[in-house]
Design a protein that fits this description.
69% of the residues lie in helices and 4% in strands. The chain is mainly alpha-helical. The chain has a 3-stranded antiparallel β-sheet with strand order 1-3-2.
Length: 249
């Protein structure tokens, strides 16, 4: 994704005729294919998730399919499907007869989330270190370098984008669909919480460096160090979260 815009994307379209079918003419007007719709839904989800995580759609604000469709220049059907995914991620609430509301940020819920995230994240890191392909290890090293550049530049938006790619790559490399399902419920909420509070109580360059340590350990196939790097990262995040609670009370 281009750093100049959080909501840019591309769609590739390729027609594949059914094999062995020669006597059925193509329709004059083609309906949208499922693959195209899914691509647009993924783009809508990614764009909306970033708008929510970076607080461009504020906690507690009301949104509508029409407004979001106009803002992202994406049709209402992909927007609706993306909102349903965001509701499962607890980033929005779809309320009957009241519309769609961006979820509030709850500090104490974040602490409970971290109890689960610590255990699942360690499992994912160890599994990714063990199962990653050579290509995935190469991408891990590239992400480690991106994290370090973000640390040097104090680039919070660049860090969030790298973090999202890193999380997805970890889940891909871990090859555990049950852990992936659990992590996806927590990652966006965690990124938004961090973005909302990090200027008060967190050290962004240090956070990026800890992510780089974790990425390098996975790339090297070092399960023990991947788990240890994860523990260091989670300890820092928990300390940051508790500092936020203290600041709010």
């Amino acid at each position: 994704m281009d750093s100049s815009s959080p909501i840019e994307g591309t769609i590739s379209q390729t027609y594949h005729a059914p094999e062995g079918v020669r006597d059925i003419p193509r329709p004059r007007r083609k309906a949208p294919r499922a693959a195209d719709t899914q691509t647009l839904t993924d783009r809508a989800y990614t764009d909306l998730e970033e708008l929510i995580v970076t607080l461009q759609l504020a906690p507690g604000s009301a949104v509508s399919e029409g407004m979001l469709s106009k803002r992202l220049k994406i049709g209402r059907t992909p927007i609706r499907e993306a909102l349903q995914r965001l509701a499962r991620d607890r980033l929005v609430a779809i309320l009957p007869r009241r519309g769609i509301v961006v979820s509030e940020i709850n500090v104490r819920s974040q602490l409970r989330l971290l109890e689960t995230r610590r255990e699942v994240e360690r499992l994912v890191a160890r599994s990714a270190a063990r199962r990653a392909t050579p290509e995935e290890r190469r991408r891990m090293n590239e992400l480690a370098e991106r994290f370090l550049r973000c640390a040097q530049r104090n680039d919070d938006t660049g860090f969030l984008r790298a973090d999202r790619e890193f999380n997805e790559l970890c889940l891909e490399a871990a090859r555990n669909e049950f852990a992936a399902g659990s992590m996806r419920l927590m990652q966006s909420l965690s990124r938004r919480f961090w973005y909302h509070h990090y200027k008060e109580a967190a050290d962004m360059p240090e956070t990026a460096k800890l992510h780089a340590d974790m990425a390098r350990a996975i790339a090297a196939g070092d399960e023990a160090e991947a788990a240890a790097a994860t523990d260091r990262l989670m300890a820092m995040i928990e300390s940051f979260t508790r500092a936020t609670v203290s600041a709010d009370t």
